[in-house]
């Protein structure tokens, strides 16, 4: 990217101060020679005026393009990132025997790159889909493995072995002095976090428990998950971790009880409370409730949004449908691409499919989706409410 060009929507969260200064100077130079593209960028944030442009003006424009309200705010954030990186290099997580727990492997390499040295545990049972019951771990694993085998093509034995590895690790925490939970704001993360807090509440570890809870990141236009961030951002998030205390442990236990109840009423009541110990959990649980089938159409929110996408942009491949869902339609993105494919199956199932899917491509992301008349009729019902 040239220093004069407008930046793409930032996704990784890392900024270089000298680069941004140079971009502001280049923009000022181009504007003073009446370059149309430069003037158009400036007019988006600064109305026409008689006074000549100054460097402070183009710095303001650059800051706004990066997602900050002012140049001082952008500068302060970059300095905070640099400070966090230096602080991590000096000390990191080496002061205690540390286990980092995450609902996937997406940040494992980035933690190492950033300079963290603790152990890493992936706990990624996708509680946002499939049956949930308040059962002992072994029975819960059996229930979940049976479901995951049905939708994924894995054998039940393989699914159970994969789950057992992470569940068993929760019973082997004695050697750690600190547990750090890394979770963002969506229902995939928050339902897993609820279960972990429930387990830690039932059997408190000797280790200190801390939480990195991420809802947004300055300068990231559409934050979806910690895994999209540059390694330096993990050092910055590390400085913001908080101790997991009794109210948060109790919230996790309450959330797990509500998620495993026979009906949605306990979950609705918990959402209505605002979950003050961790408000983002309440937001995620509210989104989870939106997956319940509507009484008139049988559609949850993901199904309805998928039909809308195919109607608005299709026919189009499954992979592009998922991309639209994540980038533009889903209010709180939480699905992985494979999970999305699993959730498509009821929509394409005979004898009355809502979507048709081509079989001309072996790889499912390239298979073409099209809306059926029944799918169109259900969308009309949704939109006429």
The proportion of residues forming helix, as a percent range, comes to 40-55%
**Rg:** 24 Å
CATH fold assignment of one domain: Dna Topoisomerase Vi A Subunit, Chain: A, domain 2
Instruction: Please state the second-level CATH architecture of one domain.
Output: 3-Layer(aba) Sandwich
**Which CATH class of one domain?**
Alpha Beta
- Total DSSP helices: 16
Question: Would you identify the regions where 5 or more consecutive residues have pLDDT less than 50?
Answer: 1-9
Structural class: alpha/beta
| Count of beta strands | 8
> N- to C-terminal separation?
47 Å
Strand order of the largest sheet: 2-1-3-4-5
Overall 3D form: globular
* Biggest sheet descriptor: 5 strands, mixed
From N to C, what is the helix and strand string?
Answer: HHHHEHEHHEHEHEHHHHEHHEEH
């Amino acid at each position: 990217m040239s220093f004069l060009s407008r930046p793409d929507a930032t996704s990784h969260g890392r900024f270089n101060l000298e680069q941004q200064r140079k971009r502001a100077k280049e923009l000022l130079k181009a504007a003073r020679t009446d370059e149309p593209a430069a003037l158009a960028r400036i007019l988006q944030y600064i109305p026409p005026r008689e006074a000549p442009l100054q460097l402070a003006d183009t710095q303001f424009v650059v800051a706004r393009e990066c997602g900050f309200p002012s140049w001082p705010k952008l500068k302060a954030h970059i300095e905070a990132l640099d400070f966090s990186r230096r602080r991590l290099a000096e000390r990191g997580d080496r002061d205690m025997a540390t286990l980092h727990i995450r609902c996937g492997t997406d940040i494992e390499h980035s933690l190492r790159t950033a300079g963290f040295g603790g152990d890493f545990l992936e706990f990624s049972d996708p509680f946002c889909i499939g049956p949930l019951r308040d059962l002992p771990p072994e029975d819960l694993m059996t229930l979940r493995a049976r479901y995951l085998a049905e939708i994924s093509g894995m054998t039940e034995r393989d699914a159970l072995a994969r789950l057992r590895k992470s569940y068993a690790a929760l019973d082997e925490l004695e050697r750690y002095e600190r547990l750090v939970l890394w979770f963002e704001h969506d229902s995939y993360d928050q339902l897993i976090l609820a279960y972990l807090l429930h387990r830690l509440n039932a059997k408190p570890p000797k280790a200190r428990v801390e939480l990195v809870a991420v809802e947004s990141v300055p300068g990231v236009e559409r934050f979806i998950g910690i895994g999209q961030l540059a390694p330096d951002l993990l050092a910055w998030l590390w400085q913001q971790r908080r101790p997991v205390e009794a109210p948060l442990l109790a919230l996790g236990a309450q959330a797990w009880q509500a998620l495993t109840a026979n009906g949605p009423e306990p979950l609705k009541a918990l959402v209505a409370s605002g979950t003050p110990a961790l408000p983002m959990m309440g937001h995620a649980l509210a989104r989870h409730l939106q997956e319940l089938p509507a009484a008139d159409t049988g559609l949850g929110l993901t199904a309805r949004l998928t039909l809308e996408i195919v109607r608005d942009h299709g026919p189009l491949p499954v992979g592009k449908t998922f991309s639209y869902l994540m980038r533009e339609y889903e209010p709180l993105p939480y699905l992985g691409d494979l999970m999305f494919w699993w959730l498509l199956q009821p929509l394409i199932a005979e004898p009355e499919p809502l979507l048709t899917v081509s079989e001309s491509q072996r790889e499912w992301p390239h298979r073409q989706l099209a809306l059926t008349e029944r799918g169109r009729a259900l969308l009309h019902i949704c939109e006429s409410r």
